[in-house]
Amino acid sequence: MKKRFAQRMTWLARGGAILLLCCTALLACAAPPPSGGTPAVSPEARTTPTALPPTARPTDLPATPAPQPTARPTDLPATPAPQPTSTAATATAVAQPGVTIRADGTLLVDGEPFFPFGFALYPRYQTEEFTPETLARIAASGFNTLHAPIRDNYPDLQADADRLGIRLIAEIYPYELDESGIVRAIAWVKDHPALLAYAIADDVDDGEYYSPANVAQINELVKRVDRNHPTYISGFVPEQIGDFMQSADIVAMQSYPIGKTYWRFALPSHVNYALSTAMAAARPYNRPIIANLQAFAWPDQREPTAVEIRNMTYQALLNNVRGIVYYAYNDSVWRLEEHPTVWQAVQDLTPEIERLAPVLLDGAYTRLNTGSEEIVAAQWRYADQLYVAVANAREQPVSVAIPLASPATGPIEPLFRERPAGLTFENGKLTGRMEALEVHVYVLNARP
User: Fold this and answer.
1) Half-sphere exposure of 200 toward its Cβ, with a 13 Å CA cutoff?
2) Cβ pair 151, 167 in contact under 8 A
3) Who's near 416: CB < 8 A, 6+ residues apart?
4) Tens digit of pLDDT for each residue in 408-438?
5) Rounded to an integer, what distance in angstroms lies between the CA atom of residue 10 and that of residue 8?
6) Is the pTM of this model over 0.90?
7) What CATH architecture does domain 369-446 belong to?
8) What three-state secondary structure class fits 118?
């Protein structure tokens, strides 16, 4: 959006002024490498430090405004072919401290599989918009991940997050920091056990600031300082995100379709299109895809309903994503707790994610052929059982007849008895009627 471009230019100007103040304060603590205030990681400015300066606590990191969601699609071509089966048993990984990525894209935290499930949250910690009580409520609701920018009190956030069992995606704003600033920010937070990843670029495919090359340069700069944590980027244009698959370790795909009245594809089914496109682009590089999903309302538009939120969440899971980060808990214009329907809807999903996490992380996944891009289904074989989920992304009822990809025996049991169900299993197929935007999740016995 043109508005976002204007905002970014304003942030750049503001960031330059703030950066001068930051540098003055930081010089009292440590002498940084020479810097001419050039934009982050421009080829002319790249240097390889022989030794890192001391990592004294910064006195004032740039107060970057929260980015506004974009997710501007261009056109909606046919959904890519279903992803082939992935079997966690065939993946290999070495248990080691820090965060690594298994061959199947699963994140490993100190060697243990981890499914990130949480929010983006942009205000500074220990302010009215983001209190320690806010963090405690997020943890108590069952969420385990928070995407939060590095601010001047980040160690306090890290300490409280670690105590509550929350992992942090630490966002760096490269358009506000030169190389020495990025190095200093990373060195300041890299050794804390709450750290999950570094978010090094947002809206990478907007065509306004980033290119695959300069994002890769930021990635290389981060790796000079910390090779124990992955880098993370996020984009919103499915047709272009593939250009950035080699620019970072983890790629997130945004889909925020509800309420975008000017766009003819403002439908829940955009989630399946966006994520299946991203998954197809990631496959040659074994890049994990994380879903950035909508838990907010566009300005002057309605908020997503609980049914839409659950449907979009399961569309992501059915595409075999490696985590989900909702936008947003709080940003400059949205506070989730002021919208109880949305807040309750995402909280209601945490028991389901907790129940499914071992299946999602270590089950053998197969996308199922439904004959429609708006009917999304998949199965996971796990511990001699077959878990099957189906999402009707249409805004009207449908009749389905979905063949399973491997032998199974009944009885067919709903996994969540308080949620919609009613399909039957006969002759290797799930059949029956699903209401608009329903999601069904079942478990059967897997046959050898």
Assistant:
1) 31
2) no
3) 352, 355, 441
4) 999 999 999 999 999 999 999 999 999 999 9
5) 5
6) no
7) Sandwich (2.60)
8) strand
